[in-house]
Structure formats: C-alpha cells, structure tokens
Amino acid sequence: MTDTRFDVLAIGNAIVDIIADTDDAFIESEGLTKGSMQLIDEARAKALYDNMGPAREISGGSAANTLAGLARLGHKTAFIGQVADDQLGTVFAHDIRAGGIHFDIPAREGAPATACCYILVTPDAQRTMNTFLGASQFLPARLMDRELIESAAILYLEGYLWDPEEPRAAMRTAIDIARAAGRKVALTLSDAFVISRHGADFLAEMEAGRIDILFANEVEIRALSGLEDFDAAVAMIAARVPLLVCTRGENGAISVEDGVRTEVSAEPVTQLVDTTGAGDLFAAGVFAGIAQGRSMAECLTMGAVCAAEVISHYGARPEADIAALVNSRLGQAPF
Q1: What is the edge-to-edge ordering of all strands in the sheet holding 37-39?
Q2: pLDDT of residue 35
Q3: Which stretches of 113-239 are assigned E, i.e. beta strand?
C-alpha cells in the first residue's frame, strides 16, 4: 500500500476487559443470556463486579484488539477511541501504545469512567459480555483528525460504537474524510443487537458505496439480511459490498469478493480456553493479508491462524508469535 503512513486506522471502543471464570449457575442467577453481549450502566457494572469471582484486567475493545494483532504481524496501525482521565484510562493508553499502535486522543475529564467489559467465561469457553461504555460513547466528531485518517490505507469501524449518537456522528465524519481521500472503509457488524438497532443504517451506507469491506459472523449476516438461510444471506449482502468476510466458528470462514467466493476451514486448536477476541484477531489476519497483497484464501487462512491462537488462552490479545505461526502455516518465508 503506497502513500500511506498506516495500513489500518481503527475507530472503536476504548475498553478495559475484566475477565473471570464462572459457571452456568452464576450466569443464570445474574439473569444473563449465555454467550451474548449486553450494555449495562455504571450501577449494574459495580454490582456485577462485586458478585464476580477473581478477575484479570486486560485492555481490550474489538477494534483495538484487531490492531494489536496487526501490530504483532508487523503492520503500522493507529487507533481513535475515548478514555476518561482515570486509572483505567491510563492503563488502556499505556497498553495500546506499548503494543506499537499510534494513539494520541486526549483523555476526557469528569464522569463517566473509562469503559469496561465484564467478561464471564464458562467451562465450555463461551463468554458472556457485559459492557459499560462509559467515556467511550462520548467520542466527538472534532477529534476526527483529517490528516490521520487520510494517512491510513483502510479506515476500520467498530459496529459496537455505532450505537451511541456522538461517536456515530464521528464515524460518519471519518467515512466522509476517508472516501474523499480515496481510502477504503471497512466495518465490522460486531453483534446482532447492534444490527437490530442500526441494520438499516449499515445497509444504507453499503447501498451508497461507502463501505468497501464488511466483517460478520453467521448470526450477524442472517440478522442483517433478514434471511435464515446462510447462503442466501451471504448472497444478498455480498451483492451490496465489494468484499464480504464471514466467520463460521468451527466451520471456518468465507469471503465473497466481487462475486468470487472463497472458503477455508478452521485451524485446529489444542485447547479451547476463551473465545473472546476470536473475530477481532481473525480480522487482523485478513487485514494483514490484504496489506501484503495476498490471495483471499491466504488472507482467510491468516485470519484463522490468528483466531486459533487467541482462543487458546484468556484475553483478546495474542500471546504467541502469530507472525511465526502464520509463516509456518503458509509455508513461506517470513513477511
């Protein structure tokens, strides 16, 4: 990719993940839907934290996780997201910069606090996420740095952040800047609840030619299309976007680029520990492949390798050398 400073610039929630082991009985006692993500307020966040078992704090956020993977794969990335001027905001900023990701958004003073996601992991590795959006939902359009956005080959938008009004307006401003500069715009649908509230918005953006790359999973693609049949749902959405990438869990992943469908199998996992971040790291592998000019089959395989690594341990950031894993899997010299 030429004439760019960054391969991917992402806009997303700046969140600190608080991860705890639990069981189905606790999920039921708290009135939660296993495997889902729900938004909670600060009072509910405190109550849930008080009831949780011992936890680990790890900087997260869907788009930020993707950038962390891309950085580990050797790519230049930047992040736009809002933290508060508090301890967790300092932790998040330190972690993302230490990972080699450009981040210069000033912390927001006053309430609410930095966003947190309380992730409850059951023995089957399913994660039930409870997100307090906090300061992240107050990302203003004035922080959309034109020069920064123009300097990235791909602008990547996190669907979760489309829900609050202020960052939604900010992301629309960023899309305008990116398209005027001839840059590509990518979107991840994030969750079915986001689609239930904003699916019409996403479809309108695609119809207007403002989205070049769409990431989804099986549940999300069905929700966006309104169709139960997976292949029919894929065909409907693929006709509206130049590149559709859809993950299918243990059934692998597919892409449809300009009508050409590519499929790959899931990579083997020795031990399934925590599925948090699987889709985020899959996107990292795909973006890395795109930046390197690889075929879609290779891009999807890179995504599958990265996803397999992150679900083998707790947390949504890679721990192993994923670049080495990708090189080994593709049987090629290091990139």
Answers
A1: 37-39, 127-132, 115-121, 15-21, 55-60
A2: 86
A3: 115-121, 127-132, 152-158, 184-188, 213-217
Look up the domain containing 250 and give its range.
Answer: 6-13+60-110+135-330
pLDDT along the chain (335 residues), means of 10: 84 92 95 89 92 88 95 97 95 93 96 92 88 94 97 97 93 98 97 93 97 97 97 97 96 96 91 82 97 96 94 80 91 55
Could you list the beta-strand ranges (E) of the chain. 6-11, 15-21, 37-39, 55-60, 77-80, 101-102, 115-121, 127-132, 152-158, 184-188, 213-217, 243-247, 253-257, 260-264
Residue 58 pLDDT: 82
Rounded Cα distance, 196 and 187, in Å: 16
Beta sheet of 6-11, edge-to-edge order: 101-102, 77-80, 6-11, 152-158, 184-188, 213-217, 243-247, 253-257, 260-264
Torsional sign, CA 174, 175, 178, 179: negative
Determine the pLDDT at residue 1: 40
Residue 221 lies in a domain: yes
Model's pTM, two decimal places?
0.90
By DSSP bridging, strand 253-257 and strand 260-264 are antiparallel
Residue carrying structure tokens 């929630």: 13
What CATH number is given to the structural domain containing 262?
Answer: 3.40.1190.20
* Structure-block tokens of residue 219: 């549940």
Tokens 């202020």 locate to: 166
Residue 166 lies in a domain: yes
Cα Rg, the chain, nearest whole Å: 18
Residue 30 lies in a domain: no
- Give CA–CA dist 163/145, Å, rounded: 21
Number of domains comprising the chain = 1
Q: What is the pLDDT of residue 270?
A: 80
